[in-house]
UniProtKB/TrEMBL annotation:
Official protein name in the record: 2-amino-4-hydroxy-6-hydroxymethyldihydropteridine pyrophosphokinase
Keyword terms, alphabetized: ATP-binding, Folate biosynthesis, Kinase, Nucleotide-binding, Transferase
Similarity-based family: Belongs to the HPPK family.
Domain 7,8-dihydro-6-hydroxymethylpterin-pyrophosphokinase: 6-132
Example of a GO MF term: kinase activity
Length: 162
């Protein structure tokens, strides 16, 4: 079994419900969820003229290989109704593979670790909740260090549900 870290985000419909459905589907298809971060709310990154996102990091164990994990994640997104229209656009659900153990992997389909995770507060804030001392295999810095070095000006704030 491999230890993997995933990131989920949603800014359409019932965002909180979307994150819960994604976590349930991941548990059923990928493997047991070891840790959930708190849920964070952030303004949209990249394309700013859209609703705010809810984001969460998850640590799971899986027997899937990296491409099997990617295909499973994409299938969950599709089953939940994700439609890819615009890069960084609105989405019902987004599931990114942040880390697959300490593997460094590059292919046409997948790059591990996620190539931009260290540049985005909306990823680092939830990841800091569950893996503050995890060392990025390429950058050789902990999540805590990556967050302190991140230049992203968009705040990631703990979500306060109504």
């Amino acid at each position: 079994m491999k230890r993997v870290f995933l990131h989920t985000g949603s800014n359409q419909g019932d965002r909180l419900r979307n994150l819960k459905l994604a976590a349930s589907a991941l548990k059923d298809t990928v493997g047991p969820i070891l840790h959930f971060s708190r849920i964070f709310e952030t303004a949209a990154w990249g394309v700013r003229d859209q609703p705010d996102f809810l984001n969460q990091a998850l640590e799971l164990e899986t027997a899937l290989d990296p491409i099997g994990l990617l295909n499973t994640v994409l299938e969950i997104e599709l089953d939940m109704g994700r439609v890819r229209i615009q890069k960084w656009g609105q989405r019902l659900i987004d599931i990114d593979i942040l880390y697959y153990g300490d593997i460094i992997w590059e292919s046409d389909q997948l790059t591990l670790p996620h190539p931009h995770l260290h540049e985005r507060n909306f990823v680092l804030a939830p990841l800091l909740d569950i893996a503050p001392d995890f060392v990025h295999p390429r950058l050789k810095k902990t999540t805590r260090e990556l967050r302190s070095l991140c230049n992203d000006a968009l705040p990631a704030l703990p979500f306060q549900s109504e």
